[in-house]
Design a protein that fits this description.
13% of the residues lie in helices and 46% in strands. It is mainly beta. Strands 1-5-4-3-2-6-7-8 form an 8-stranded antiparallel barrel. The N and C termini lie far apart (33 Å).
């Protein structure tokens, strides 16, 4: 099964995004819990993703959807949605996906970095503008943010 190896951080200080174009993302959850099933609109592309597990290494299977398939599934996600703008930045050899949340999650900014191995993720030294590592904090999983909103003790 395909694996995603990723760390997630709150952002303490916004980087300069002047040279970056963001893409609007709307995603909603069909199922949450041990297995998450989501649908996502990213710009003009549509996906269904299944994620299993917690922590830095998770199973992830993603499939492209047509607009019609997305439109059929989207209403089933009512009450379990997030909106955000994603920016991609380069830091050394890594690509950082910076998510700036909208709507009821406004004010939350997180950075995600994907790695080729768990060992590589452990060697990663976050840049100074990163804040707290929330990889293992389930409250910051998008599925939980979609259902419960911002964590009460949110600190960067």
């Amino acid at each position: 099964m395909p694996k995603e190896i990723e760390r997630k951080f709150c952002v303490r200080k916004m980087p300069n995004l002047a040279a970056c174009a963001g893409v609007e993302i709307a995603q909603g959850y069909l199922a949450v819990g041990g297995t998450e099933v989501r649908v996502r609109r990213k710009g003009d592309q549509f996906y269904q993703t299944v994620k299993m597990g917690t922590g830095v290494k998770r199973t992830e299977v993603e499939m492209a959807l047509s607009r019609a398939q997305f439109d059929l599934l989207w209403p089933l996600t009512a009450g379990r949605r997030v909106k955000k703008v994603r920016y991609e930045l380069t830091e050394g050899k890594w690509t950082i996906e910076l998510d700036v949340y909208r709507g009821r999650l406004k004010g939350l900014v997180v950075a995600e970095v994907e790695f080729a191995s768990v060992a590589e993720s452990a060697r990663f030294v976050p840049p100074p503008w990163f804040g707290r590592d929330v990889t293992d904090d389930d409250r910051y999983k998008n599925a939980n943010l979609a259902q419960r909103g911002l964590p009460d003790d949110r600190t960067q």
